Amino acid sequence: MSALQSVSRKDHAPGAYDVVVVGAGFAGMYMLHRLRGLGLTVRVYEQGGDVGGTWYWNRYPGARCDVESMQYSYSFSDELQQQWNWSERYAPQPEILRYANHVADRFNLRRDIQLNTRVDRAAFDESANSWSVTMSDGKTVIAKYVVLATGCLSNARMPDIKGLSDFKGRVYHTGHWPHERIDFTGLRVAVIGTGSSGIQSVPVIAEQASHLTVFQRTANFSIPARNAPLTEEERQAFRAKYPEIRRFAREVARNGIYTEMPDRGALDDGDNERRAKYEQRWARGGLTFMSVYNNLGLDKAANDTAANFVREKIAEIVRDPQTAKLLQPNNHPIGSKRICIDTDYFATFNRPNVTLVDIRSNPIEEILPNAVRAGGKDYEIDALVLATGFDAMTGSVAKIDIRGRHGQTLNQKWAEGPKTYLGLMSAGFPNLFIITGPGSPSVLSNMIVSIEQHVDWISDCLAFMRDRGFEAMEAEREAEEKWVAHVNEVAHTTLYPQANSWYMGANIPDKPQIFMPYIGGVGVYRQICNGVAAKGYEGFVMIAAEQAQRVATS
Ligand SMILES: Cc1cc2nc3c(=O)[nH]c(=O)nc-3n(C[C@H](O)[C@H](O)[C@H](O)COP(=O)(O)OP(=O)(O)OC[C@H]3O[C@@H](n4cnc5c(N)ncnc54)[C@H](O)[C@@H]3O)c2cc1C
């Protein structure tokens, strides 16, 4: 009997589990569900006060998904996807959070989830081939495996601005929004940051505030969402096609979204035809704007046609030419930073109570008790909203003190950038899995598609190990090096590395600038992962108990 089987028994030792899962967002919840299905003992630790991850923390006004809800949802349970009623094309945050809670209740997940508990430390014990996991409440448990379901956008980035702590009004971070309703009526509000969260929140805050000042460092491309209520007919039409939609999203699509696959490049069409196609996608709204043509992410001249189209649209919408110019992105190819999806973002700058401040030419100098000082001018405010994003992909992992073989920390190993094999494991850290980690398609995709793929792969892998009596598993260094080189090589065949984006770690001072996600596409990536599994987990070392003992002492 393998060690895994021995700890899987109902009478497992108190404080000992087959698997500890860190995080109870969509990844952690589905991981728990699958592992339970294998009969394993699992404990999930979540630092937040409830399940839902992203949708628990990001409660800012206007927060909603930008992948359509009928697709931004679990596919693992047909009953669930047939029964859940999404109310809008892009559900608002409270509804997505309700969905997460519904899933937790429906699959009876809560009894294995410990809330309000941070995982602070995880150390691999080479003699026992298990992890010792220490929580914020000081308790330590033992687990054969640890799965990091810590999220790619879960470590809110607080900007380092002089005087911030002296500000007299309330300060909010979009990624850490309070639970009570915040009413900005009659207040002078500043929003710092114009990424996705800024772009979603600005139009809503502008409706409440007496005056809103938006501080923009980088203008971003944004496409209208064209959000609308979903009718019962639309939902039914989608549900009837779910088998095909989900198959396509998993196996064919690059980004995990069901949409037409373009068969031609932007320069294959004449000006009029190309413009008509862009107009049609602009009118339809949403992320599929970028899949009008098959070379927008690859060829700068092709990309320019789409970028120019959006810049023209901004100039048409925004009445003041100077403001329009500032809102037109000019320092990165369209799509090379996460493209935003908005409702009336650009039109909001036509309101008399909204001011745009370009902090590239007028940097923020300091926050005063009642104002933001930028470019020598004081903008008086009562409340400050930081829409400054996240330490993406690695931020939440780096906050945990993770020690692998020979006491090496993951932070030491990743000092020059994250190194993983398939984004799933890192050499020197046996039995530690990462969901949607760097080196996998992750944030470049419909995340629920990528989450389900990783969870299924990890679950199948643990079943494989159990059935064959393996005790430990680890990425081979050579396989990891090849994968890291491949991820990098594929990234550099595209326009993505040309932008100072959070995909590159560019929003965090001193973070190594490496394109972190795998851009080869979710369909291709899935095939690679399945191929690796079919070859007996090629590139991974799997060791039985006695061998593991030898490795540990060598
Ligand atoms: C505003 C916003 C909108 C988004 N919209 C979309 C969208 O439309 N489509 C899309 O595909 N993706 C979107 N995303 C990305 C989104 O993060 C993923 O879709 C998905 O929700 C990630 O789920 P997860 O479980 O992997 O991570 P998360 O939802 O981030 O959950 C991770 C959890 O781990 C917990 N955690 C982290 N570290 C620890 C620790 N040390 N101890 C205990 N708990 C810990 C966190 O508290 C968090 O609750 C959006 C992200 C944001 C911020």
Describe this structure in words.
- This protein is of the alpha/beta class.
- Helices cover 33% and strands 17% of the residues.
- The protein contains 18 helices and 20 strands.
- It has helices at residues 3-8, 26-37, 54-57, 78-83, 93-106, 196-208, 232-240, 242-251, 271-284, 300-317, 321-327, 345-348, 395-398, 410-413, 447-468, 477-491, 522-534, 545-553; strands at 16-22, 42-45, 113-114, 119-125, 130-135, 140-148, 170-173, 188-192, 211-216, 222-224, 340-342, 354-358, 364-368, 371-374, 377-380, 383-386, 401-403, 432-434, 470-475, 540-544.
- The strands form 5 sheets. Strands 1, 2, 3, 4, 5, 6, 17 and 18 form an 8-stranded mixed sheet that branches. Strands 7-16-8-9-12 form a 5-stranded parallel sheet, with helices on one face.
- Strand 13 (364-368) and strand 14 form a beta hairpin.
- Helix 10 (300-317) runs antiparallel to helix 11 (321-327).
- The longest helix has 22 residues, at 447-468.
- The radius of gyration is 24 Å and the shape is globular.
- Residues 1-11 have low confidence and may be disordered.
Helix coverage percent: 25-40%
Based on secondary structure, the structural category is alpha/beta
The number of distinct β-strands equals: 20
Give me the Rg, rounded.
24 Å
Q: Sheet with the most strands?
A: 8 strands, mixed
| Bound ligands, named by name, code or SMILES | flavin-adenine dinucleotide
As an assembly, this protein is single chain
Report the total helices: 18
* Relative strand content: 15-25%
The average pLDDT value, as a whole number, equals 94
